[in-house]
């Protein structure tokens, strides 16, 4: 094998794309700061137990594992940063009120999430801890929409669901307790025959099967929420979930909204409330995923209400128009202190100044050099290239 080949679904990022990804990172972190989010930076590798949730098999399968040569314990390369940020909130900061945290860093998956997905992502996100109300969810959704708009995404579409509806139906029938994950997968696939076969195998109640079948048909606009109230069982947890969805939808009038009450997946299994995704033309999969995940900090000694979102900057950048070349100034090589001073002033002003090395051909792949520094009447001055 050639020594320059990379493993499958891993790739190098070349200059123009890397520059744009870094600009997106700075733009979004600065945006989150204006909302009051504080930046944290958890380590790339932790002991496996602290990266995992006991009931989250999907996250466990995506986590690369290795042995710590110092302790002999198993470590994991993070596949998602939400659990780490929850640990920081619950264990290290331990604040009594609302805490807003943001983050950005690479995550690695053992296998790609899809045929065209990478195994290394640059995950950026924001989380609100300590507020159980739907207002925190509204703030996160608005911030997520503003994130993709700042990146240049046109006409983002918001998809909402609440796994609590499906979970309430499953929890109401003891026969489904041991096959809940299978039911959730079948609901997400809208596989009504599969649901019927599974319910028959475990002797689920007939009214449960009917409710699950109905759930697979409940997708569309906001009217779905009102229709669900009429056709689903009158369980308190079902109506609480529908109330949360209705409040959220009526507070978000600046983006097209679609609701799919059967969608139980699309993210890791720690979500406990409203879940959302953002889609846009040009990307085959969701750009942003987020939602409520109350209690995730319990394993770190402090259960807290929490909601947030994350996205992959590499995927976001890949669907945008080609990055434009940056404007730059060229300067000759010289030991003249006046030239060094002129270059320093221009760079402090934010200009890109490329000082050609002796014998270097003037070839600028990423830059549009439209000005040059020349010596005129004993002073270094700018002039347009070619004049």
Summarize the structure in words:
This protein has 387 residues and is of the alpha+beta class. It folds into three domains: 1-155 and 280-324, Bira Bifunctional Protein, Domain 2 (BirA Bifunctional Protein, domain 2), CATH 3.30.930.10; 157-279, 2-Layer Sandwich (BirA Bifunctional Protein, domain 2), CATH 3.30.930.10; 326-384. It contains 13 helices and 16 strands. The protein has helices spanning 15-34, 48-51, 57-62, 82-93, 134-150, 163-171, 180-188, 192-202, 206-215, 223-231, 236-250, 313-318, 337-348, and strands at 38-39, 45-47, 64-67, 74-77, 99-108, 120-129, 157-161, 219-220, 257-260, 275-279, 288-292, 306-312, 326-331, 353-355, 367-376, 379-384. The strands form three sheets. The protein has a nine-stranded mixed beta sheet, with helices on both faces. It has a four-stranded mixed beta sheet with strand order 14-13-15-16, with helices on one face. The protein has a three-stranded antiparallel beta sheet with strand order 2-4-3. Helix 7 (180-188) runs antiparallel to helix 8, helix 8 (192-202) packs antiparallel against helix 9 (206-215) and helix 10 runs antiparallel to helix 11. It is elongated. The two termini are 51 Å apart. 33% of the residues are buried. The model has no long low-confidence stretch (mean pLDDT 90).
């Amino acid at each position: 094998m050639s020594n320059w080949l990379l493993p499958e679904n891993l790739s190098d990022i070349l200059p123009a794309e890397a520059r744009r990804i870094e600009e997106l990172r700075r733009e979004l972190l600065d945006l989150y700061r204006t909302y009051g989010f504080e930046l944290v930076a958890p380590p790339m590798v932790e002991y496996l137990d602290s990266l995992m949730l006991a009931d989250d098999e999907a996250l466990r399968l995506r986590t690369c594992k290795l042995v710590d040569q110092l302790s002999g314990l198993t470590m994991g390369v993070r596949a998602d940063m939400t659990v780490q940020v929850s640990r920081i909130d619950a264990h290290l900061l331990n604040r009594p009120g609302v805490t807003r945290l943001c983050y950005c860093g690479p995550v690695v998956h053992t296998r790609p999430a899809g045929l065209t997905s990478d195994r290394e992502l640059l995950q950026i996100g924001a989380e609100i801890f300590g507020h159980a109300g739907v207002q925190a969810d509204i703030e996160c959704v608005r911030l997520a929409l503003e994130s993709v708009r700042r990146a240049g995404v046109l006409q983002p579409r918001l998809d909402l669901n609440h796994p609590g509806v499906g979970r309430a139906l499953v929890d109401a029938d003891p026969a489904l307790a041991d096959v809940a994950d299978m039911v959730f997968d079948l609901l997400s696939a809208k596989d009504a025959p599969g649901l019927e076969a599974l319910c028959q195998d475990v002797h689920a109640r007939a009214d449960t099967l009917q409710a699950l079948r109905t759930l697979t048909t409940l997708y569309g606009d906001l009217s779905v929420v009102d229709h669900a109230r009429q056709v689903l069982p009158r369980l308190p947890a079902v109506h609480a979930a529908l109330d949360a969805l209705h409040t959220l939808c009526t507070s978000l009038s600046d983006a097209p909204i679609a609701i799919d009450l059967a969608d139980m997946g699309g993210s890791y299994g720690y979500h406990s409330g409203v879940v959302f995704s953002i889609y846009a033309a040009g990307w085959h999969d969701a750009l942003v995923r987020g939602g409520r995940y109350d209690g995730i900090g319990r394993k770190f000694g402090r259960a807290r209400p929490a909601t947030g979102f994350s996205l992959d900057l590499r995927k976001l950048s890949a669907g945008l128009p080609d990055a434009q070349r940056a404007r730059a100034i060229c300067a000759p090589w010289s030991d003249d202190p006046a030239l060094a001073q002129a270059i320093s002033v221009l760079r402090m002003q934010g200009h890109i100044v490329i000082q050609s090395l002796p014998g270097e051909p003037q070839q600028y792949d990423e830059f549009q050099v439209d000005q040059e520094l020349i010596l005129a009447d004993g002073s270094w001055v700018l002039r347009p290239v070619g004049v």
